[in-house]
Amino acid sequence: DRDIRVLAFRLASFVTLDFESRLALLRSLNDTDAKIRGLAIVAVGRQKMTQAIPELARCLRREGLQQARQLARALGDLPPQARDWGTAAAVTAAIVEGAHIVRVHAAGEMVQVARVADEILRGATRP
Predict the structure, then answer these.
(1) Using an 8 Å Cβ cutoff, are 114 and 95 in contact?
(2) Residue 11: pLDDT band by 50, 70, 90 thresholds?
(3) What DSSP state is assigned to residue 79?
(4) What is the pLDDT of residues 24-46, one digit of tens each?
(5) pTM of model > 0.70
(6) Could you give the CA distance from residue 116 to residue 105 in angstroms, rounded to a whole number?
């Protein structure tokens, strides 16, 4: 029944699936019903995001630790609360190098830094 399949695909987007369920989901990408096909595409995308999020979190933690160590080496004995200017420089460098996500403690101030860095980059790519 189509209604049951629609409901199953909506639920599949939010739960971890076993091998057989993932296989059925992938087969549904070729379904003749456009709504089922569309829901299957969304479900597959959400499943991939769910699998990718833990790895992304690990990368962010690893990069954050490396950045903190670099700041500590560069700024010497300054306590972490006094490293905002160094963090601003590191955030700008990360954005210039292509970062889309940065992890910082002084989020309000660093949002301003990120916006300015983004605007400078946009300006640099305009003719």
Answers:
(1) yes
(2) confident
(3) -
(4) 777 888 888 888 888 888 877 77
(5) no
(6) 18
